[in-house]
Design goal:
437 residues, alpha/beta, 2-enoyl-CoA Hydratase, Chain A, domain 1, 2 domains, 8-stranded mixed beta sheet, 38% helix, elongated
């Protein structure tokens, strides 16, 4: 029985007088089985065209005639198979001795194929098909190899592009130019801090792109923030005032969602009008510095604080030493100055609309409905209302500066957890900066 293999020419079984090697020819029409043997220095390949369904051909050296003979035998009933006719020769079975005529037929059938310089047409056709199939497989392998290389190149390019910010941060300078008249939207969501989504850098970039678009009929700064850094809030407030002066025909409105407190309100008062929901929380006009003192806990645990300073006030607000009255007085004075800056900005932005009371600048928070009564906001309304009824351009185009794909992925996977934890610990245990919250 011949051995199975794919590559006939490379198989070690294809040896002189060996078992031979089975192969399969695959084409659109199906699959044809065959085998190849080496006899008298030549490789002879045969396709199984035996009419017995599901049978396989075999070969036997010298079983019926001389020892150098080569015969095709049907494995179903042992009869000799004649490729020229596609039928098994009757009365010629394994173990029997055919007559002289059978010997002549066999010599014509097989012996001439091994000795003639030119192989018969059917054998040549089989070999050509085998060679063409091999070439076709090699060509497909090269094509797949080139495709995989191209895909790897694209993956690496996308990774590098996202890493360096070439993609993932769409440039919206011309974003609204193709949609006609529209309302420009810039989001300010979360804590206002240098490395947050509501940082001054990101909000200012979005505002500039919104104002630069010639088709922008008005800008909406949608706010949902508890506050944050007074410095970052001041940057945004100043930039809004600058853009209003530069683009006097393009109004900007603040629309509050859930919360607009402290630093968020510091930004909102720079807009021409403030729109809120009746249940929004507005206000918290004040400044806070927070921290803890651990001196009592350290004494109980037997922990000694060792700090060496070159200035008598270098340990200002150190939570590991008893509170210094002079430091407390200085901190109160400092946040009082920032509070007065906050009050001036609110009065400048709201003007005569503000109805001041003793609680206005006390740090209290009011509902949106009450804030309209107090002059902290102008009216009830959301983004769609302002775009449709105030700006008169219902189409809204978002100009918010987005994070690139790598920043979003790293944030989702939690790679910033350590950084956030370290920052929280520093703010809790170290010297806290003033915050509008």
């Amino acid at each position: 029985m011949a051995d199975d293999a794919r590559l006939i020419c490379l198989s070690a079984a294809l040896a002189e007088g060996g078992k031979g090697v089975r192969f399969a020819l695959r084409s659109w029409g199906g699959e044809e089985k065959g085998f190849v043997v080496r006899h008298r220095g030549k490789a002879c390949a045969y396709v199984n065209q035996c009419p017995h369904t599901g049978t396989e051909l075999d070969w036997q050296p010298g079983e019926f005639f001389e020892e150098s003979g080569l015969y095709l035998v049907c494995s179903t009933h042992g009869a000799i198979f004649e490729p020229s006719t596609g039928f098994c020769v009757a009365k010629k079975r394994r173990g029997s001795s055919p007559g002289r005529q059978g010997s002549a037929e066999l010599h014509q059938l097989v012996g001439s194929e091994m000795t003639d310089p030119v192989p018969p047409s059917w054998e040549r056709a089989v070999l050509e098909r085998v060679a063409l199939k091999a070439l076709d497989e090699q060509r497909r392998a090269r094509q797949w190899s080139a495709l995989f290389k191209l895909l790897w190149f694209l993956v690496i390019f996308l990774i590098l592009s996202s890493w360096f910010g070439w993609i993932g941060r769409p440039d919206r300078d011309s974003m609204g130019s193709g949609v006609g008249r529209h309302t420009a939207l810039v989001e300010m969501e979360g804590i206002i801090a240098p490395d947050s989504k509501a940082s001054a850098e990101k909000v200012i970039k979005g505002l500039n792109r919104a104002f630069k678009d010639a088709n922008t009929q008005g800008v909406v700064l949608r706010i949902n923030s508890p506050g944050g850094s007074p410095v970052q809030a001041g940057y945004i407030n100043d930039e809004i005032r600058r853009l209003r002066a530069k683009y006097p025909n393009t109004p900007i409105y603040a629309v509050v969602q859930d919360l607009c407190a402290s630093g968020g309100y510091y930004v909102a008062v720079a807009a021409e009008r403030i729109y809120v929901d009746k249940a929004s929380l507005i206000g918290s006009i004040g400044v806070i510095i927070g921290g803890f003192g651990f001196t009592g806990a350290m004494e109980k645990l037997g922990i000694e604080r060792r700090a060496y300073t070159s200035g008598e006030n270098k340990d200002f607000l150190d939570p590991f030493v008893p509170e210094n009255p002079a430091h407390r007085e200085h901190a109160q004075k400092m946040i009082g100055e920032i509070h007065q800056q906050f009050i001036r900005v609110v009065r400048q932005g709201r003007g005569q609309r503000l109805k001041e009371t003793p609680e206005t600048f006390s740090g209290l928070v009011w509902t949106g409905e009450k804030s309209v009564e107090l002059g902290l906001a102008d009216s009830l309304g959301n983004l769609e209302f302002v775009a449709r009824e105030v700006i008169k351009a219902e189409r809204v185009v978002d100009y918010t500066q987005k994070e690139n794909y790598f920043e979003q992925l790293s944030e989702r996977l939690g790679t910033r957890f350590g950084e956030s934890l370290g920052r929280a610990a520093a703010e809790t245990l170290g010297r806290s900066a003033p915050g509008l919250r």
